[in-house]
Amino acid sequence: MSKWYTLGHAVQGRGHELENPPIPCQDKIYPQKPTTYSSVGEVAFIGLADGAGSARFSHLGATRTLEVVAKELSQNFSQYTNMPNQAQMSATLLEHILQALQDLSIATTNALQRDKSDIEDIFNALLEEAQGLLKWQEAHRLPLMQGMQSVQESFSQDQEKRQESVQHTIKTALEGMAEKIKNLQGGFSGEAYQLQFIPLKDRLETLKAEIRGADFTLFSAANIKELFKETAPIEKRYYKIKDKITEHIDQVKNKRKSLIKKCYQGFLDFIGMEAEESYGVESQLYSLKNAYVFKPNLTPLNLPPKDLKSYSTERIKSALKTHKDTLKQQIMRCYEAYKAFLDKVDGVDLKEWDEDSLEELRSILTTDGGKEHKKHIQDIQAHIQKATTTAQNYQKDLLEQLGTKEQEYTHLKRRFESLKGDVLSLEGDLKHTLDRLQRKIETLSPPYTLSGVQNLLLSKATLQKDFTLYETYAKDSTQLKHDLQSLSLSLPPEATRPFSHVRASLEKSKDQLNTPTPTKEFLSAPRAKGFLEHANTLESQAKEWQTLHTRQKQLESFSEETKALEKTLKEHLGALGVCCAHLHEGVKKLQVQSLWQTKDLDPLNNLPLDTCKTKLEHTLHKEKALTQQFNQEWHQSIAPTTPPKITLKENLQKLQDSIQNKACSLQDLASTLLAVALQGDDFLLLHLGDGVCGVLKGRELKVASHPDNGEFGNETTFTTSKDAPFSMKIFKGKLSEKNFTGFALMSDGASESFYHNKDRILVPLLQDYMNVARVPGMQEGVQKALETLLEGRVKEKTFDDCSVIALVLESHDPLSETEKKLQAKITKSP
């Protein structure tokens, strides 16, 4: 028989090494050490099983699976190869595997449960905690309840003392208020408030009559006529003289002189006789031309300042008289100068005057001297008219000022009447409120109640507002008196009134005989300070009383909340106590058992421990919050309940985990299966689950079975899976017919380095290792090189376990270049 060599190795993955505790390598190979098959009729066998990562004892299951398959195929190889179909073959083989795994499961479980030390520790911890919780539940008393009782006693004693003090203070304040009310009711000044408006009105009327009656006219029409009565005679004489001159001019023009006379005149001119006559005419003309003309000094009318306060009829009359006298003098002097001028013109002898001289004389009369005299008289007339207008406007302005003062007077009087009406109305309201308050005070008697005091204080705000308003009215009365005095001082001192006004004043005085004599010109605000101080005292006591009442309510509310909390806490503690009692009884029953299953814990797991714990924690949280609030409100330092740490549920979970760890189920032994068996020229290849099966055909490595067993990418089938008999792939045939010279099995971790998933081919590297291993004497070296490869490059490429096992036929065929290099490398390695 030809020789067949095995070589293989399994490496723990990096992911399993990092676990705490580390997970053992779940990849198993068979045979574990290199083996040579050369006996006639001997069955050559290699196998690989990859334990399920989620199964705790899959490494044990993988080992047992390979042992069973190796034994079964070694003893019954021909029986399996002669089976009519693959289903029977896989079912038969898996039946043996499952039976062996079931025996292993029982043996492993019995071995695990022989050590009870860890479970006993958990039992004791549960019993101890349950007993402790029962004792705590029975002895627990709510700390807040004890502190609440202490505060209530202290508060009750303090409240009694403060009530006594409050009653005394209230009584004193009520007596003081009653006394102050009597003083206030007799202290109003509205009825006596009166201002003297009649004298001021009389002064205004007298002044108005005086100004209206005063004569502000400079000259009457008759006076003006009298003043300028000489104008007409002078004008008549002016025109007479003018006519006279004109007549002479006409005579000279119409006179026809003879030639002799002209000659004579020429002679006279020649000898200078006319010079003397001509000199006399020119002298007279010069004298007339420069005759004196009086120029009036028309100073404006100067009246006293238009200020009513300094008004004086006598001063005005004096100013008017002075101005009138000055104007009269000016008029008289104008007339005198005009007359003198006309006398001078009229006295000239015109017989020998020539036409040019006469024309010049007439010009002097009409345009020079005469016109200027007339103008001055006209200026005086215009000045008189202007001064008259000034005087009339002066009187008008005074009357307008007086009208403004009368309006001020009317406004002040209305202010007074309104103020007095408001004050009397306010006093009525105050009297009514004070009377009602007095009656309320009289109805109160010790012991005083909070409602009675609060009812009494209802009118405090109204009274305080009214007293403040009265003070405003008092300030208004002061200002009103000041304004009235200012108006009076803005008028001139009281003058002697006309008799008619005296009579009118007497009539008014008769009407006022029945009017009470004014007693007060100012309002005096009631002295309410003392009353309000007593009211404030009552208010502060009422607030303190209210505070006491509020604090009492708060304490009662705290007490009710504490009682309700205590009741709820007792209920939750009772429920927890029931759970602890049942737990204690259940643990005692478990202690007497020799073997346990997780279902034995169902009665304990069904206890509402989490619900009881949650409710208790919620209630204790409320207690903590209420205690903090109570300590803050009442300045206490009560410590809330400090509950014991409840770990029953955690210990039950530890117990369940421990019992579960002491059980080995069939699924805990699950693994994949890849196997090859040879006998003579027959071969049998099995593939269940993931991993890759390769076959060396001649000298070329091909894929015999791909890792595509599952319907989904991450799905695989294990020996313990229900569909394992239908998922196992079985290949059988003749080695000579297939030219098979070797087989290779690898787990999914190793396939990441030796199998191209995308191209679904095996890499040449493994092919070189297998062909070199076929060379006689190279098996040991290749084995070591394969171990180095797996523990280095292959392991670094994945986190999963890595395993490869191969079965190769000895060969003397020449090696390829890559195979020679590998052989040389292996040979050189120590």
TrEMBL record:
SUPFAM superfamilies: PP2C-like. Signal peptide: none annotated. Residues 23-120, 616-787 form the PPM-type phosphatase domain. This is PPM-type phosphatase domain-containing protein. It comes from Helicobacter ailurogastricus.
